[in-house]
Amino acid sequence: MNLEDYFISNFSTKSKHIGDDGALIDGYVYSKDAFFENIHFKRSWMSLKEIAYRSMIINISDAIAMNAKPLYALLAVAMPKDITRSDMKEISSGFMLAAKKYGIDIIGGDTISNTKLDISVTIISKTKQPLLRRGMKEGDLLAYTGKVGDSKKDLKKVLRGGKLHPKSKFRNIVLRDKFVSRTTRYLSAGMDISDGIFSDLDKLSSVNSLGYDFFKKISKEIGCSGEEYEMLVSFDPRKRKSVLRRAAQTRTPVTIFAQAARKRYKNRCKSHHF
Questions:
Q1: What DSSP state is assigned to residue 156?
Q2: Residues 14-66: pLDDT tens digits?
Q3: Cα(254)–Cα(138) distance, rounded to whole angstroms?
Q4: Residue 58 · residue 151 · CB < 8 Å
Q5: pTM above 0.70, yes or no
Q6: What is the CATH number of domain 21-126?
Q7: Where do the DSSP E strands lie in the chain?
Q8: What's the fold here for domain 141-261?
Q9: Dihedrals φ, ψ of 244, to 5°?
Q10: Cα gap 59→94, rounded to integer Å
Q11: Sign of the dihedral through C-alpha 11, 12, 14, 20
């Protein structure tokens, strides 16, 4: 058990709401993620507006992954003492751009002075038909949306001093809200790909007590690429045509790569968090 899983286990054994992309309570989903300078990003990689926008989108992704409609956001922003009003305006414009795109009302939060820019966002959303991680059955097909692997390539590039392409996923995360809303009825389980396909498969494996038979090879470079924010889903083989039809309707690339089986699964990636 890695340190992140150990820490979470101190709470998850005492709460039935921990274990999905967000906490589902009476039809509402509560999700929260941190986006800290020098941990998740460097100021030289993106503009302040792009940083704020991304911090919102990666949190909205948790709501989308559970087939929930984002409604409200709470922001906690720690800013350097030398930050200017112009900088603050740029940061707020990034938050508002993401909020406007998904119809979210920013209802409050907290601000403090700090030595760097750290952002934490809480999203409150609502769902009538939640998509959970639990529900995958033996024989179900596993698939992911979009193209996976570019996020790790972009990260390596900027760590070597390179520049992000304008269409990089660090700048332009594409959430699969239309695909999720139209296919949830056909899916047995799902989550967003934030820690990498292999690590997120481990989470599905753990909660459903199943492993996988892979019929499509996934390289470690692709399987360990985190912060993709694509969808990882499972579904009954009999629902394959329905899922692929909705994928085509929403112009969502889908790759079916494995089948759930009664066997052990071993994650090939190192933890992203510790």
A1: H
A2: 567 777 889 999 999 999 999 999 988 888 888 999 999 999 999 999 999 99
A3: 21
A4: no
A5: yes
A6: 3.30.1330.10
A7: 23-25, 28-36, 69-80, 105-114, 118-126, 141-145, 189-192, 211-214, 231-235, 254-261
A8: Phosphoribosyl-aminoimidazole Synthetase; Chain A, domain 2 (3.90.650)
A9: -65, -30
A10: 14
A11: positive
